[in-house]
Amino acid sequence: MALDQLESSPSHANHRPARICIVEDDPAMLRMIGDYLEQHNMRAISASGRQEMAGLFAAGEPDLVILDLRLDQEDGLDLLREIRTRSDVPVIITTGDRRDEVDRVVGLELGADDYVTKPFSLRELLARIRAVLRRQEAGRAASPRDVERGRYRFGGWQLDPRDRRLTDPSGTEVPLTKGEYALLTAFLDAPQRPLNREQLLQATRVHEDIFDRSIDVQILRLRRKLEVDPSAPQIIRTERGVGYVFTLSVERLRRSVFQS
User: Fold this and answer.
1) What is the pLDDT, as a whole number, of residue 10?
2) pLDDT tens across 33-63, in order?
3) Are the C-beta atoms of 48 and 72 separated by less than 8 Å?
4) 3-state secondary structure labels for all residues of 20-33
5) Do 67 and 91 touch, CB atoms closer than 8 A?
6) Cα–Cα distance between 260 and 257 in angstroms, integer?
7) Could you give the CA distance from residue 196 to residue 41 in angstroms, rounded to a whole number?
8) Are 166 and 159 in contact (CB under 8 A)?
9) Rounded distance between C-alpha atoms, residue 150 and residue 167, angstroms
10) What was the pLDDT predicted at 19?
11) Helix extents (H) in the chain
12) pLDDT digits (tens, 9 = 90+) for 119-132
């Protein structure tokens, strides 16, 4: 069964336990995490790899995924990439140790919502799960406000928050990851003002102790989509000792302009 069979399901309601999918091929670790979550009013389901996970998603999308990037038989980053092409389900990645900076950065760049490094405490994992789920609920509550606030227009580009659709000056759609969208809207809400890394980390909801380099990586990716020459950026410029500044003026268009 392939991950293209993933189907969206309604978000979890407050009256039922959150359904957490643990993708882990170490039976002892799987049992330990699962038992702990069950003790804290969460429903744990497990998968050892792509095939089992596809089956679980086909039966109903979970509320959150805990994904081990160090699976023996599969590349966890490839699996994360597949998940992100099909679903916005929150994902917390686990890595082997604190030296695996590259995997963590790439995982966050691919759309993971948070990470923990092994060995980790179960209390910390639970706190991160709850924090990610709270952010997910806050995001759903904010969606109606996004719909009402209309489009952004800047230098011939347009971004429509209703469907997170970015179009270039020729009208061609440019796809954005969840992190790129959050980063771009942070710039559009504060045009021509320097933003430091802490502000951008908060905007992209990357965990506060991830290395600053993760923001630099996301900036590079966004520049590749917006700039004529990403090596000599004119739209997102670096402010030495401060952070970054979005140089274009931004026009906010009323939603009614685009209503049929």
Assistant:
1) 39
2) 999 999 999 999 999 888 888 888 888 889 9
3) no
4) EEEECCCHHHHHHH
5) yes
6) 9
7) 38
8) yes
9) 14
10) 94
11) 27-39, 50-59, 76-86, 101-109, 122-148, 178-188, 197-204, 213-226
12) 899 999 999 999 88
Closest CA to 63 of 10, 131, 108: 10
Q: Is 189 exposed, middle or buried, given 0-12, 13-18 or 19+ CB atoms closer than 10 A? A: middle
Q: What's the DSSP call for residue 241? A: T
Backbone φ, ψ for residue 115 (5° rounding): -150, 160
Q: For the chain, list residues with pLDDT below 50.
A: 1-11, 13, 146-147, 207-211, 256-260
Tell me which amino acid residue 221 is.
Answer: R
Give CA–CA dist 126/33, Å, rounded.
9
Q: Which residue has the tokens 């095939």?
A: 51
Whether the CB-CB separation of 21 and 59 falls below 8 Å is answered with no
Exposure b/e, 122-160, CB count within 10 A at least 16 = b: eeebbebbeebbeebeeeeeeeeeeeeebbbbbeebbbb
Q: How many residues does the chain have?
A: 260
Output the pLDDT for position 203: 72
Return d(Cα 183, Cα 19) in angstroms, integer. Answer: 29
Check residue 260 and report its DSSP letter.
-
